[in-house]
Amino acid sequence: MAQTYDVIVVGSGPGGYPAAIRASQLGLKVAIIEKELLGGICLNWGCIPTKALLKSAQVFEYIKHAKDYGINVSEYSADFGAVIKRSRGVADGMSKGVAFLMKKNKIDVIMGTGKVKGVKTVEVTDKDGKKVDYTANKGVVIATGARARELPNIKIDGQKVIEYRKAMSLEKQPKSLLVVGSGAIGMEFAYVYAAMGTKVTVVEFLPNLVPVEDEDISKEIAKQYKKLGIDTYVNSSVEKVDTSGAGCKVSVKTPDGEKSFEVDVVLSAAGIVSNIENIGLEETGIKTDKGKISVNEWYETNVPGFYAIGDCTPGPALAHVATAEGIICAERIAGHKTEALDYGNIPGCTYCQPEIASVGFTEKKAREAGYDIKVGKFPYMASGKASAAGAKEGFVKVIFDAKYGEFLGAHMIGMNVTEMIAEVVVARKLETTSHEILRSVHPHPTMSEALKGAVEAAYGEAIDL
Questions:
Q1: What residues bind FAD, as annotated (predicted)?
Q2: Would you say 186 is a known binding-site residue?
């Protein structure tokens, strides 16, 4: 006979484990199924360990430029192995933290591979091949996440052609690296390796680097990466990767013709693909579309009792989106009245240096939507805190509806902007207008003053420009 719970969550990533905790907080008996490590890709191979690598790279950059701060450092070097080890240690600590949270919230952890079947049932196969059925009285939440996408002409072999997991656990630092794709993953690894001395080339198929961002952001990051010694090619595609020799011979089609590169390693960072194969969707009758599980605004699939959240569904593939979806889903299963997620107010962050953060409409999208807009920009060059920190690169750009003052969007590049963007998210959630931002006192000296400065610029009230 199958063991029974109120809720069973398949996957313990940033969507799965918050869903399990919230369901437990609401008085439900919960189990979570995980085939590898608690915390999923985000905690173990994504968000957290990459930030540890980025911090090490940033510290190394500080040391290289110590003289700019009046400090003399005569000898320094990057211990690549130690950097990787620190990153793995941070990830391990976070995974143990999730295990603690499961115990604290009285959630049963079932290690194994889950497969949905029957009525609100999950079959779990453990490492020894033993199969056990578990049934949920109220619902099964599928939170199986995603993995790196493999392009047809760029076969990942884990040695010379790698994806993000291998990029954060290489045994030896490559002398040269070609990154395919300039989304958050590609740009972050490009910075990490370039800062530590690897010669990096970035190839992007679309017309701009970080193509989801405002065009002004794309232009600025291209300029900053050039200063760092990173070569970037847009409107370009990798046609062939030859790994028969000691390294990789890469053929790239660019607007200026075919170019050849010889590099030690190629990092494929061209998006992700959902983990929905072999988890019982077809047998259970759960519908999918374009490689994603189809859900409604409450994350219900077409089969009663089965829900899906996070990267295996059509929403933005971001950890904080998965967390929000998991919490809403758990509240819905528990029968609580809850609020649907506003996907138009989701912040996006890229943690390279300078950092990139944005939310809402880009200038182009706002104009295409028919808005008459006011645009303001405040350069970090005019920020006292940025000058003191030696981080004068970047700016804050804001976009308002000219008629009503609605805060349509914000786009930031510079130090600490991934922390600053939350102010805009809250402001937009509260339907704040330009007037409220202008009359909200921002502490001095801070980076956050740049946001107010940009709003002032949009309305012709700039003080420090």
A1: 51, 114, 311
A2: yes
**Which amino acid makes up residue 199?**
K
Q: Is 442 a catalytic residue?
A: no
Which residues have CB under 8 Å from 296's CB, separation 6+? none
Asked whether 116 and 279 are in contact (CB, 8 A), the reply is yes
**Do β-strands 356-360 and 407-413 pair in parallel, antiparallel, or remain unpaired?**
antiparallel
Contact 44, 91 (CB under 8 A): yes
Query: Within its chain, how far is the Cα of 94 from the centroid?
Result: 17
277 vs 274: CA distance, rounded Å: 8
Residue 351, CA distances (Å) to 36, 289, 300, 411, 414 in order: 26, 31, 33, 14, 10
Torsion of CA 59, 39, 344, 287, to 10 degrees: 140
Report whether 185 belongs to an annotated binding site: yes
**Closest to 32 measured CA to CA, from 367, 359, 309, 255:** 309
Query: Token digits for 460?
Result: 């012709």
pLDDT tens digit string along 160-171? 999 999 999 998
Q: Catalytic residue, from 65, 435, 442, 444: name it.
A: 444
Digit-coded pLDDT (tens) for 314-349: 999 999 999 999 999 999 999 999 999 999 999 999
114 is in an annotated binding site: yes
**6 CB-near residues (< 8 Å, 6+ apart):** 23, 28, 29, 30, 136, 137, 138
13 in a known ligand binding site: no
- CA geometry: angle at 133 spanning 127 and 136, to 5°? 125
pTM comes to 0.95
- Listed in sequence order, the residues at least 6 apart from 29 whose beta carbon sits closer than 8 Å to its beta carbon are 5, 6, 7
For residue 352, the Cα-to-chain-centroid distance in whole angstroms is 12
**DSSP-derived secondary structure letter, 143:** -
182 in a known ligand binding site:
yes
Region of residue 71 (left: phi > 0; alpha: psi -120 to 50; beta: else)? beta
Annotation-wise, does 311 bind a ligand? Answer: yes
Q: Buried b vs exposed e over 81-101: b needs ≥16 C-beta within 10 Å?
A: eebbebbeebbbebbeebeeb
**pLDDT digit string, tens, across residues 358-408:** 999 999 999 999 999 999 999 999 999 999 999 999 999 999 999 999 999
List residues bridging with 239 in a β-sheet: none
